[in-house]
Design brief:
The protein is of the alpha/beta class. The chain has 13 helices and eleven strands. α1 crosses α10 and α11 runs parallel beside α13.
Length: 375
């Protein structure tokens, strides 16, 4: 008998136990009970290791890769697991072919440093753009493309404002150039055409709620034909356990980007987190987050905030950035923290980020605390 969707969704929501006022998923997403249990079980197994333990634990790697493939649209052979977003972005920056790479100056620093280091090493030429409002739109990118442009790097969701990039539109205007996408702020909670990306890098500790040490790198066939995985290791080569002292050819597919064996404990957690997303579907999570954003906007509207995030469902994600004329963001962040509300304070705005598990009580706490803090 098929379980009703309402029961499946209720079971999903019951998996989480963050504090009521937690509104900082763009920084870190508290893991589910399933993730905690998977980590504990894998760690317990490793503590009582026997002849088959290591091989059995490493089965979690394939399980996580299969889940990534189902959620992203990439083939399993096009996916490799990584410990964090920065590792994948560094590997990408030092693997792409020579030429000019466009990136937004408003992007999170993790997007800048890999490309800047690759440029310093003489592997690429980097051009940093200053898009209005930080938005890397297809129209802006089309105007900036040149004959020497070989790649464009964007964030699927802007970390400061929650603006969701038009990946399909960007794909159309850049043609056969490589599209590098940092998907950490959107994967698993926004419905986007991930398959149009050439290099998709996602860390699992935020919206996927998988904990630290989790993530993946996915590459299109176009990218796999062009990249030279300079930053890869012995596990990214053919016959890795044939210890002959030689440097072996690159492995097939995305596996050529593997550096070494990673933690199967982390991979067990990652698989559990991805499968939990699958249980309810990204579309439902995205819809529920949209409802939470609407409720937050409605609650704050009487306070006359200056809103830095889009309210249009087409290009918003789970981030709500705002400022108030009579309170500095640091002051506001302090008052919210004292009231048990977790948020991120930026220089000119306060960033709240909601998830499917965010409650009305959390939103009420934000509105009432701000109202009390106003002069």
């Amino acid at each position: 008998m098929t379980q009703p969707q309402s029961d499946i969704r209720a079971a999903y929501l019951a998996q989480f136990s963050e504090t009521t006022g937690y509104l900082d998923f763009a920084r870190y997403g508290p893991p589910s009970r399933a993730v905690v249990a998977a980590s504990a079980a894998a760690m317990h197994s490793s503590a009582t290791a026997g002849p088959e333990t290591v091989d059995d634990l490493m089965g979690a790697t394939d399980r996580a890769i299969r889940a990534v493939a189902r959620l992203s649209g990439f083939a399993t052979s096009s996916v490799v697991l990584i410990p964090n977003t920065s590792t994948g972005l560094f590997q990408a920056a030092f693997a792409i072919p020579p030429g000019e790479v466009l990136v937004s100056g408003n992007d999170f620093p993790a997007n800048h440093y890999p490309l800047a280091r690759a440029a310093q090493a003489g592997r690429i030429r980097l051009r940093v753009l200053a898009p209005p409002g930080g938005r890397m739109t297809p129209e802006l990118i089309a105007e900036e493309l040149g004959p020497g442009t070989t790649a464009v790097s964007v964030s699927a969701v802007d970390f400061a404002t929650g603006y969701r990039a038009d990946l399909a539109g960007i794909r159309d205007v850049i043609g056969e150039r490589l599209l590098i996408v940092d998907g950490i702020q959107g994967f698993g909670v926004t419905t986007q055409p991930w398959e149009v990306c050439d290099i998709l890098v996602v860390g699992g500790q935020k919206w996927l709620r998988a904990g630290w040490g989790t993530g993946f790198l996915a590459l299109s066939d176009r990218a796999l034909e062009r990249v030279d995985p300079l930053l890869s290791g012995w596990t990214g080569a053919v016959d890795p356990t044939h210890y002959d002292g030689l440097i072996h050819p690159h492995a097939h597919g995305a596996g050529r980007f593997s550096i070494t064996n990673l933690s199967p404990v982390d991979h067990a957690a990652f698989a559990a987190a991805l499968e939990l997303v699958e249980s309810v579907g990204t579309a439902w999570i995205a819809h529920r987050i949209g409802e939470r954003l609407d409720a937050l906007h409605e609650a704050l509207l009487p306070l006359d905030p200056t809103i830095g995030s889009s309210l249009d469902p087409v290009d918003r994600a789970g981030i709500f950035s705002f400022a108030l004329p009579d309170l500095q963001p640091a002051q506001l962040g302090k008052r919210l923290a004292e009231a048990g509300v977790t948020a991120t304070v930026h220089a000119s705005a306060l960033r709240l980020s909601v998830h499917a598990t965010t409650t009305d009580s959390a939103i009420d706490a934000v509105a009432s605390t701000i109202q009390e803090a106003l002069p």
